Amino acid sequence: MFNKHKMIKQSKNRLNEEGIVSIVVTLIIMIILTLIVTGFAQLARREQREALDRQLSTQASYAAESGINALKAALPFIAVDSREDCDENTQVEANKPNPFTIENSKLSDNSSYTCLLFNRQPKELFYQRIGADDAVIAPLSLKDSGGSSIPLGNLNISWKAKTGSTSINNEGLGKFPKAQDWGDSIGILRLDLIPIPNTVPIIKDELDVSTKSFLLQPQASGQTERDISIINNGDIIGVTCRLGKCLLNIKGLDKNKYYLRMRSIYNPSNVTLNNQGLNGAASTSTFEGAQIEIDSTGRAADVLKRIKVRIVDPNSSVSSVSGPNFPEYVFSSKDNLCKRLSLTSIASVNGCTY
Questions:
Q1: Given a cut of 80, is residue 161 above it in pLDDT?
Q2: Please, which contacts does 10-15 make with residues 24 or more away whose CB atoms are closer than 8 Å?
Q3: Is 335 contained in some domain?
Q4: Under a CB-based contact definition with an 8 Å cutoff, are residues 262 and 32 in contact?
Q5: How far apart (Å, rounded) are the C-alpha atoms in residues 160 and 247?
């Protein structure tokens, strides 16, 4: 009887233990399922937020671009040279659209451009995507910290490949191989530097003599500075390039105004111009009448987007960033050009027969 009672008791204990194990396993499974569902919910919310952020980022970019366009339209009616804060005190000519007011900057219920800054006299000039097909003309005129026009003095010209390539072609100085042999190396920069006399009238013959046309060829070990007085037309100057950036400082520029015509041979280039000191010290002078720097911030809900651009000064004689308002050339051909001349009659002009 004792053994039978003992066996029944052990059997009940086993049943009780199995029930506890079932509860524990069920709880573990519920916890795992809860974690999985929570994880999926968080991922879904994250994806939804990222999709919303992308949409708002696009809207904010469009809002910033709208601010740039509004400011470009208003620039001819703004008397000041710069705007350095986001207040509404910048004066615009009467009865002209004012892009700085909150009312005008609002584009929709949840988007607007929140801040517009500009500077008509930047310390550096940037020209992107200079190629071989169209030249870019940069008017160079300096003002000191007091607003007076001063001679250019020296000009730092730096350029790098538009593609970001850092390679330098191994051809010797003055050698120009076929385009396919040049590869993706940094392009050669052709410059035409035209000084504008400080006095009038401008005499064409003097202008022809003083204009310098020369080439800057990237070299692993070349020059970093050259005086304008020893640069001759047609010179090919080897310029030192390091880490994909080529830099030459031209000294002795004694006129108050120049025009610099730039073309990149072989590959497009991004060019930077400044008046930095020869010892690397920053210059306090600024360029006038060349470019206007615009800084626009757009907002869509809680997302902000900031865009900085450079545009040609509307008062400049250069009509666009890509080039002047006249063609580069009349006809271009990579093959031989055959000319045929036909005379249909004989004419006499001033005693000369043609």
A1: yes
A2: none
A3: no
A4: no
A5: 9
Q: Quick one: the chain helix, strand, coil %, rounded to 5?
A: 25, 35, 40
- The enclosing domain of 226 has a CATH number of 2.60.120
In a domain, 203, yes or no: yes
81: left (phi over 0), alpha (psi -120 to 50) or beta: alpha
With tokens 């390539």, the residue in question is 165
Give the residue numbers spanning the domain of 28: 1-118+300-309
Average pLDDT over residues 106-129: 88
- Residue 98 within any structural domain of the chain: yes
Domain co-membership, 138 together with 278: yes
Q: What is the pLDDT of residue 179?
A: 84
Torsion of the alpha carbons at 47, 49, 51 and 53, rounded to the nearest 10: -150
Backbone angles phi, psi at 132, to 5 degrees: -90, -15
Q: What is the domain count for the chain?
A: 2
Q: Which residues pair with 237 in a beta bridge?
A: 216
Query: Which residue, 113, 102, 155, 94, is CA-closest to 285?
Result: 155
